[in-house]
Input
Amino acid sequence: MDNRLKEFVENIGYARIIIGLFLIVLLVSAFLLKLPMSNLFEGILVRTGMNGILVLAMVPSIQSGTGLNFGLPIGIICGLIGTIISIEMNLVNWNAFIVSLIIGSLLGAISGYLYGILLNKVKGQEMLVGTYAAFSIVSGMCMFWLLAPFYSPKMIWPYGGKGLRVTISLENVFDKILNNWVPFGMSLDKFPFRILGVNIPIGLLLFFGIFCFIFWIFSRSKTGITMHAAGSNPKFAESSGINVDKARIIGTVLSTMLGAIGIIVYAQSYGFLQLYTAPQFMAFPAVASILIGGASIKTASIMHVIIGTFLFQSLLVVALPVANVVLEGSLSEVVRIIISNGIILYALTRIGGGEEH
Amino acid sequence: MKDVNVKTKSEAASPKLNNSITKILINNLVPIIFCIFCVAGMYYANISTKFLINSIIERMARNSFLVLSLIIPVIAGMGLNFGIVMGAMAGQIALVAITYWDIQGLGGFLLAAVISVPIAVLFGWLTGLVMNRAKGNEMITGMILGFFANGLYQLLFLFVLGGIIPMKNERMMLSSGIGIRNSIDLKGIKYAFDNLIKIKAGGLVIPVFTLIVVALLCIFMKFFLKTKLGQEFRSIGQDIHIAQISGINVDKTRILAIIISTVLAAWGQLIFLQNIGTLNTYGSHGQVGTFAVASLLIGGASVTKATIGQGLLGTFLFHMLFIISPLAGKSLLGDPQVGEYFRVFVAYGIIGVTLGVHAWQQQRQAMEKLKE
Output
């Protein structure tokens, strides 16, 4: 019995169990504190949908063997540029959204390719080099946001001030375009998209689901299988004629493109575009999410993405109001820092032990 | 760099001389590039010489100690210790304590230095334990550990103090009585160290005592690296397996290297903050790791090699750039903000490039070994 319990725990993973239990405690206390539960559940669903694609971006990079993609901000910046160009073109609604996605993912493909070449030169240190590559590009882009020739009044400071605003409102552009989208002209206020007072952001979840599905199909294609093989055992793959470097570049390109798409989906739900230093630390919650979902630095699947994003975001959504009632101040922010970095640290010490033996 | 190489080949008549010049150039490429940056920046910045010299002396005095605290882990083969953030936290915890007890002046400062030691030893020991579990990934582990510790630090200062540990002090606590304010005035110990011996001459202010302490640290490190322990650090840094075979307790010695680095960083942060005069409770330690690492690298150090000279030169060049770039940005592009972004970009960029080059060299070495 003891063994079976141990096996069960190991199958699910300690991290997931601890986070899961913590979440249950939080939910119970939220219920006891008489917090509006339907709001909480709605918040969980929205945040899962809006962060999902950014977390999904970790999968191709892990599968292709470059580890956790701490260079995600590179993709995020591509998505931001895409959106800014579409605002500058004075597009609105779906036009703006789709043009942003197209430009963002094209830029993402190009910079992902270059980033992939860089990562092939620094095998074994991808995560560290990636982190600082991303940090320097984010700070270099700060100069770009300040000096770039954009003139749309939606984006520049109303008077005085130079360059683009720090946060750009997406109102009248594509604010909540996916969140408010309903298939077949049905209404968001009625069943089946409103259950027990919880509005289900069906458009947002559907969009996330479509990308998971596309990636699932890709991972079953010849290219996808090759990429996975190159990542899980590079030496063996090399000797069986797979071009490992190429497979790693494909993984990085996909990851960067997903980063670009992910931030656009995030921004439409958030309602604002955050420029300057905002993207610098955006890789960390995504990395933490997929690790909480049960991935490691060497293996990751779509299930890990879905479970991880759901758990991590639920934790944040529920922890904030509970903490606000119980304690004053920003406890949930502190909890977020501790949990996300703690889980990354745990994953890092695990690979170290493995390589030594 | 290519031109130089071509020349070396064509002028075969005096290969020795050219080779040595090329070698010096290549070995010191990074500091040379930054010297050029600084000179160009000075040309555009229109800065008064007196102001420049004063600022650079002040910044050298307050930052050198932190930069030098990075050297021992590099020598012990653990790379750039981004974990010195935790040393800085230890220093700040000690500062909060002496401010709370209202112990002022040099006595307060020295007491803080004493209190910070056990805390820093504990932090360093824990860091060393974690890093031993992540051999080969020490740098990113140290960095993430810094972020993680920052979470715990915030937990301590925002919720535990006043919430669990009783603490009453209106000037330091938030109005709710739980948690410490964003910024704490350190006027009790401001310049406590700098003012011990300070020369004011011709408009220049020189904190001689702090500079002497930095010099003492340099001498101490030079001496220390010649001792048995110092030699053990070196041999672990050269080859961890050979060190292990020759009977050195590798794990223990590595932990010791990190502990020394963390304690030095704690003192470095104290020196830094007594000069600044206000403790930004939740921000003062944030950039310590990045800026110190960038300084060391700009001096020409790498992941595996760092000297005291490189540390001092790097601190000088990095802070020169820090002073000049906003002014140069303003006169070149009409906006000081550009220069400020530029220096952050340089700090991260130099770390990224050095780490990248190092990883690339490692990969090439591994491949050459494979071919043999």
Chain B touches chain A through 46 residues (CB under 8 Å). The mean pLDDT of chain B is 85.
